[in-house]
User: What shape does this take?
Amino acid sequence: MHARLVAVAGGRISVRRLGKDRAGEIRITRFLRNPAVSIKEMVEMAAARTCERVAGRHALAIQDTTTVRAEDKGRHCTALHPVIAVDAIEGALLGLVDAQFLGRDGGKRSLRKARGFAEKEGRRWLEGAERAAELAASGAACVTVIADREGDIYEDFALKPSGVEVLIRAGQDRALTDGSLLFERPKSLPEAAHMTIELPAAAGRPARKALVALRFCEVEIARPVSRKRRSEVAALPASVKLSLIEALEVNAPKGMPIAHWRLLTSHKVSDAADARRIVGFYRQRWIIEQLFRTLKTKGFDVEALRIADDGPFEKLIMASLIAAVTVLQLVREHQFERLGVRWEVEGSSVRVPAEQELAVADDLGGQIPKIEDGPWPAFPADLTSIALAVATQARGTILIFEKMFENRLFFVDKIVNMGARIILCDPHRAVVTGPARLYGERMESPDIRAGMAMLIAALCAEGTSTIGNVQQIDRGYERIDERLRGLGARIERVDH
Assistant: This one.
């Protein structure tokens, strides 16, 4: 069923569409109504696969909540709260960590403050952190749990599991132990650094780059006061020491809302480099928003499902969530975004806007930016040579690391002859600095992958290039000359 869901991503899912025919519909229906099929087991199997991928990595456990069904004019809704793991350095989506359903009924706001913490929906944020602790037990070098303002709950800081750090955007102007308020503290701090961040498109706001000023300090937040839960709150620590990082936009465009993040973290922040690193981690929270878009409007359109019974409905939603993770892995893992390539997923299509300014993205961990291949779902080895060709046109320096096969980078001398600035370190690694002005050359294609890289370089070059032994390219890219002409390339096949 997982493979079938991945295959139909990009259109509204239904039992009929998944089944293909009447016999298939019956099989899907029986599966969804089978009491032996449990949501818990689905999640545990997906989480187990994620745990296999985290050894030695700094994993970001990003969590958030989205509505998947609303009824009675929104008075009753079903929400889904997943936790996903993302590599903090590479930005790779590692997989699902946990997911749970929440039933929400309107008109009960007055009762919420009287409930104990264990009875509140807010408990899900701490439960997500507890599940994320399993990543540390599976060998993750570090685990940082990330949440937006809705996760700003005192218990999430005070009761965080051992072995994990937390990073939460502040949503409450909390009292500090010195009598001051949290939101007032950055106003007295000097600017530590500036940083450019990518702001994704949101309601009423197009995607844009924002220059933000960073300020940071240590704060000690005080235990909140609750008249209705006095004894329960009194059992919590009286205070929690955290690091506060403020990222405030400088010179925002006129008419645009100013980007302003106040981030609370258990990580130690000692200098501007630490502050940039933490802001970089928080930026990765956008990946879970992409997951929700894949699950809903831009992918499976689960909100349109018309399954009345909660059991089958929730099983299909959970299966779709796991499939959406796979789809997003396939989209994200191409790593061309490290070279500044932007794309948009539209249904079952990927749209790449024209006239992009390519630039190598800074590595979140302060390391040398790198593109490397690996077994699925990592970057495929067949695209490494293509990434190298694209890197010659991107501003900056990047390491291309071919880990899977020997000698696949031995064609780079042909690209160097065209004017590329490439240093071949060894049979597996090449350092590319761009943008380089390329010039036409006569070349012979040694294999499919190298031939395609030469073709891309030729399209970027001034003058005319001739590539021989094109049957190598034809083996992997049928009618490539016709397809490129359809995009406006000046290319023709000639006989010698």
